Structure formats: structure tokens, C-alpha cells
From TrEMBL:
Gene3D superfamilies assigned: 3.30.70.260, P-loop containing nucleotide triphosphate hydrolases
GO annotation (BP), single: amino acid transport
MF terms (GO), sorted A to Z: ATP binding; ATP hydrolysis activity
Leader sequence segment: none
Keywords noted in UniProt: Amino-acid transport, ATP-binding, Cell membrane, Membrane, Nucleotide-binding, Translocase, Transport
Name of this chain's protein: ATP-binding cassette domain-containing protein
Length: 342
């Protein structure tokens, strides 16, 4: 549905200086999915997003939407394509001088839709986003979450196939973020709208995305299903993002204390799917003279499947610990923790 083929975007900031905001990115977003791009500030996310509706044009490579290279579209085709791509923003970008109704009606007016049809469509959309009673209010009379609902209704007005979300929940508190993410899920499910979002919050990725790409310095450094990335992240940056939501690392103080006590060895154990329902650890430890001390951990839900993430200390003699680890590795992922961030 959206494809980036070896896309780079270079900005010339002065005669000698250039910034490669997007560097040789290849990515495909499939129809019907919710695809998230995560990265720290300056990673290149906004630029990548702006390339999709040609608010920026690529310096190298091409961007395809519905199999068409968008750089080759005529002005008329580009206008038509833009009507099929809705966009929502971190700061909502509403017209303060228009009512809620007027904001949602705006793209339909531009598209010269007849008045009666506009009225019907806007009222449907306001009901869909839960703001039927706010049609005559102005943006300044609304909360942040309500403003974003208006933004979503406006983005959906022209019945887009694709919705692009630029840090859509970054200005909202956690509870309102959850409500807006649920609404986006509903948009995806009920209207079959493909969603491409950028965020710096791993919680947003965990809550609604099917797949994720991690960006750093303009490049995609890791990409995969949200489940695979959470359970087996390869890159340091990805691991840090995941830790930020799982809170699964032991403090450096505790790590030092555990090392100093020399009682045992530390391991991270990752359980997936059915293994979360079974007492794998205690069963195996029972067969050897090894005791298991759980240092921290949790079981969470991801993409409607369960996964557990524990840090345990195995106490016993080295030979027996090795055997326990070997047995465990037949059923779950086990990695020795060698530093506090491990
Ligand atoms: N129009 C521009 N002219 C020059 N440099 C730019 C321009 N737009 C972006 N950049 C630079 O490109 C890099 C990537 O910026 P971009 O805004 O895409 O990152 P981001 O991941 O979206 O960051 P943030 O979350 O802070 O918005 C940065 O170094 C930025 O300064």
C-alpha cells in the first residue's frame, strides 16, 4: 500500500553542510495494518512521513502509494491521492475560528461536496468519534483529547484509505492517549484504513501496532512484527525503547549487590505463548540442585498473545546451572545478564 524504495532525503542547511534526514530507507506498509515508526528526536520520522504525501520529495529513491510512484503523478492525480490520505497531528492543527462542525466539513467543502451530503457525513463522523453533542463548539472549548477526536473526524471526512499520524498522542495524558489509541484501532477495523504512525513512545507501538520500524540517524535499524521486536530485540536502541515500557531492568546498585554476594548467576528468561502458562522454571530447577530467585519480571499482553520477561538468579554449582540453562533453552529464551542494562 505504501512502499519506500531506497529513499533518502538530504537537506542542505548551508553551502557546505547537509543533513541526511532519511538515509536509504526501504519499507513496505501493507493494506489494513497499523504500522509504527519509532525513534528519538531527530531520527528522521517526520521527514519520512512527509514523503508519503509529497510534502517533501525524495532526493533519491521512490515512494509508491497503491503501486504508483508519487513523484510521477500529475497535479490532478496528486490532489486525488491526497484526498485518500488523511493526516492527524500532535498539535491537532484545527481552525480556531471554525466550529467543530466547520472543521470536519472543511475538506468536504474543498472537494465541492453538496451541502446536504456534507451535513450527513459530518454528523456521522462526529457520532463515530463520540462528539455528536459538540458540533457547535469551538476548538478552544475542547480538551486535548476532544480536539484530537475532531482531528480524526476531519481526517476521515474524504473517506481515506490511509491515515498518517504524526505523534498524535504526544500532547495527551496517559488515559486520554489510551482512548485516542482505541479510537484509531476502531478506525482501522471498521473502515479498513491503513495507519502509518510515528511516535517516540513504545507504549503506542505496543498498544496498537502490528509492525514496527525503529529509526536512528535517518536509517531503519530494525523492523519486524511488534511481537518479534518485543520478544527478541537486536539493537541497543530498540532494547532501550522496550525497557522504557516493560520496566524490566535491574538497577545498577542491585546488580552490583547481586554480583558482590556471589550467590548465583543472573539470567533473563523470556517466555512466549503457551510457555507463560506453565511452571517451566520451577519444574526444571526441581530436577537439579539449583534454586531460582526471581529478581524482577512481568507477564504482559502483546498482539493478543502473552509473553513473560523475568530476570532470575540461579543458585547452585556451575555445572548444574549450565544444565538447567540448557534444559530451559529447549522451551524458552534464556540469556545471561552480564551488566545491569542486559
Ligand atoms: N527542512 C529542513 N531543513 C533542514 N534540516 C531539516 C529539515 N527538516 C528536518 N531536518 C533535519 O533532519 C533531521 C531529521 O528530522 P525529523 O524532524 O525528520 O526527525 P524526527 O525523528 O521527526 O524528530 P522529532 O521527533 O524531533 O520531530 C534532523 O536533524 C533535522 O534537524
Amino acid at each position: 500500500m505504501i512502499e519506500f524504495r531506497e529513499v533518502s532525503k538530504v537537506f542542505h542547511t548551508s553551502k557546505q553542510n547537509e543533513v541526511k534526514a532519511v538515509n536509504d530507507v526501504s519499507l513496505s506498509v501493507n493494506e489494513g495494518e497499523i504500522f509504527g515508526v519509532i525513534g528519538l528526536s531527530g531520527a528522521g520520522k517526520s521527514t519520512l512521513l512527509r514523503l508519503v504525501n509529497l510534502l517533501e520529495s525524495p532526493t533519491y529513491g521512490e515512494v509508491l502509494v497503491n503501486d504508483k510512484s508519487i513523484s510521477t503523478l500529475s497535479p490532478k492525480e496528486l490532489r486525488q491521492m491526497r484526498q485518500k490520505i488523511g493526516m492527524i497531528f500532535q498539535n491537532f492543527n484545527l481552525f480556531n475560528s471554525r466550529t467543530v462542525f466547520g472543521n470536519v466539513a472543511y475538506p468536504l467543502k474543498i472537494a465541492k461536496v453538496p451541502k446536504q451530503e456534507i451535513k450527513k457525513r459530518v454528523n456521522e463522523l462526529l457520532s463515530f468519534v463520540g462528539l455528536a453533542d459538540k458540533a457547535d463548539q469551538y476548538p478552544e472549548q475542547l480538551s486535548g483529547g476532544q480536539k484530537q477526536r475532531v482531528g480524526i473526524a476531519r481526517a476521515l471526512a474524504t473517506s481515506p484509505d490511509i491515515l498518517i499520524c504524526d505523534e498524535a498522542t504526544s500532547a495527551l495524558d496517559p488515559e486520554t492517549t489510551g482512548e485516542i489509541l482505541n479510537l484509531l484501532k476502531k478506525v482501522n477495523r471498521e473502515f479498513n484504513v491503513t495507519i502509518l504512525l510515528i511516535t517516540h513512545e513504545m507504549n503506542v507501538i505496543r498498544t496498537i501496532c502490528n509492525r514496527v520500524a525503529v529509526m536512528e540517524n535517518g536509517e531503519v535499524i530494525e523492523e519486524g512484527s511488534v511481537y518479534d521486536i518485543f520478544t527478541n530485540p537486536q539493537e541497543r536502541t530498540t532494547q532501550k525503547f522496550i525497557s522504557s515500557v516493560l520496566n524490566d531492568h535491574i538497577s545498577s546498585n542491585l546488580f552490583k549487590q547481586l554480583q558482590a554476594s556471589k550467590k548465583g548467576r543472573l539470567y533473563r528468561v523470556i517466555f512466549m505463548g503457551d510457555a507463560t502458562n506453565q511452571p517451566v522454571l520451577s519444574n526444571i530447577a526441581k530436577d537439579y540442585n539449583v534454586s531460582v530467585n526471581i529478581i524482577n519480571g512481568n507477564i504482559s499482553e502483546l498482539q493478543e498473545a502473552l509473553f513473560g520477561n523475568l530476570v532470575v538468579e540461579l543458585q547452585g554449582n556451575d555445572n548444574e546451572i549450565d544444565q538447567v540453562v540448557e534444559e530451559l533453552q529447549k522451551q524458552v529464551q534464556v540469556k545471561e545478564v552480564t551488566d545491569h542494562a542486559g
